[in-house]
Design goal:
about 450 residues; mainly beta; 7-stranded mixed sheet; about 5% helix
Length: about 450
């Protein structure tokens, strides 16, 4: 663990943020990096690691490595990687279909026993037998599930993914240490109705390509320093000083998936959608009738009240269960902030629409736009208040807005958690990017 001078961040944060937004909004990749998957990943949204249905088999290998943090520090981590792939944080997003018989082979390279638990999955097997807690000679629990022995051990888990939803997979061996060190990932079970449904309900459909992950975690750097040096750490002294979203802190959080300067942190958190419009005929180019989808996961020790500005979310599921009564009655509800407790997952659909239908010619914004000749605006300003329209920027101003899109911040509402060891306005922060209704018109 190396703590470096962080004053430079304040001098360049606005510029860095703007440059990263340009990177985050690209739709194609021009570079291949160490952790790049075999197929080209989308610039934004969930990147699934998949295997053929109905018997997908994954190999996850425990590895050690380093991640970059917004204050210029690097952090020693543990993680699950796919097969022989390099270290990554967090672990791969495993996507399977409802009814699949899922097999996961854990290979352990760490110097202590490790394992994987699958909360929410039933009848999990380890090497063909029902999983069991592991006990020492004194009858004390040493692991909540079967382990892969230290320094090269292996264990094979299997289960039938019979319920759709969002789930966690994480270490069950000394989890207070190993999960904090990075042994966790997301498991998505697609419902029988199709990959663009959250559950087997017609009202859980979302726009394909507008599905996003918000995986929230935390780090106590002193725990990680102790692990790096092979020293014990008293968990009574645990205190998180970094909070991350998808394994990154802002402004890196809004960079592309597989950004070249983050080779061990593959997953971005920028949500990019088109303006919702279900009032037009399907033949109209502006017709966009379905919401986006966000899968929230908390693998930390604290509640994270995550707040996307600009819209309320409709919570349709929690902990891999659709919010419905036994008779199938819809029990979903709107939330201003999504307060995810430790170990929870929340499934939320959301949309943004121009409720007033403002148009520069036919329905203008009912205020006089001031003379901006000598005013300076933020770099996300397009020069116009209308979605999809660019205007004249003020003298001395500059913009990174490409096609009149809107950017709306999303962040953890516990403000002390949007820091990186005291550097404020970092940590679990991202943006919602709203493109004009017409698809494929923005770079």
């Amino acid at each position: 663990m190396r703590k470096s001078n962080i004053k430079w961040i304040w001098l360049g944060l606005v510029l860095i943020t703007g440059l990263v937004v340009i990177a985050a909004s690209r739709t194609s990749k021009t570079q291949t990096v160490e952790a790049q998957p075999s197929t080209t990943a989308p610039a934004t949204g969930i990147v699934c690691t998949s295997q053929p249905s109905p018997n997908p088999t994954f190999t996850l290998t425990t590895k050690t490595g380093y991640i970059n943090l917004p204050d210029g520090n690097t952090m020693f981590m543990w993680g699950y990687s796919e097969g022989n792939s390099p270290f990554q944080h967090p672990g791969p997003v495993l996507c399977v279909n409802q009814g699949d018989t899922v097999t996961i082979i854990l290979q352990n390279t760490l110097s202590e026993d490790a394992s994987i638990m699958f909360p929410g999955q039933e009848n999990v097997l380890a090497n063909g037998a029902q999983v069991q807690p592991q006990l020492n000679g004194s009858g004390n629990v040493t692991s909540l599930t079967n382990v892969a022995a230290a320094n090269g051990g292996s264990v094979t888990y299997s289960f039938v993914a019979d319920k759709p939803g969002t789930f966690i997979y994480e270490s069950g061996t000394n989890p207070r240490k190993q999960v904090s060190m990075g042994l966790f990932g997301a498991l998505i079970v697609r419902p029988s109705m199709g990959a663009n449904y959250a559950y087997n309900r017609a009202d859980s459909q979302f726009t394909a390509g507008e599905e996003f992950l918000v995986l929230l975690s935390e780090i106590d750097p002193y725990q990680h320093q102790a692990a790096e040096n092979g020293l014990p750490f008293n968990l009574n002294n645990y205190k998180a000083r970094y909070w991350l979203i998808n394994g990154r802190g802002f402004p890196d959080s809004i960079a592309d998936n597989y950004a070249s300067w983050l080779p061990s942190q593959p997953y971005g958190a920028l949500a990019r959608i088109h303006a919702f419009n279900d009032t037009l005929p399907p033949s109209d180019i502006n017709y966009h009738p379905l919401p986006g989808m966000i899968r929230y996961i908390n693998v930390g020790t604290e509640e994270y009240p995550f707040h996307p500005h600009g819209n309320n979310g409709l919570v349709i599921g929690r902990d891999g269960r659709a919010l419905e009564s036994a008779a199938g009655q819809d029990l979903s509800f709107e939330k201003f902030a999504i307060n995810i407790g430790p170990g929870q997952t929340w499934d939320v659909i959301f949309k943004w629409y121009d409720a007033e239908n403002y148009n520069q010619a036919t329905n203008p914004v009912p205020v006089t736009i001031p003379d901006v000749t000598n005013m300076i605006y933020g770099q996300f300003y397009s020069g116009s208040p209308y979605l999809g329209t660019s205007g004249t920027l003020p003298v001395g101003g500059e913009g990174l807005n490409q096609c009149g899109e809107y950017y709306i911040i999303s962040h953890n509402h516990a403000l002390y958690q949007i820091t990186s060891w005291g550097v404020t306005m970092t940590g679990p922060i991202t943006y919602l990017r709203i493109d004009p209704p017409q698809p494929n018109t923005c770079p």
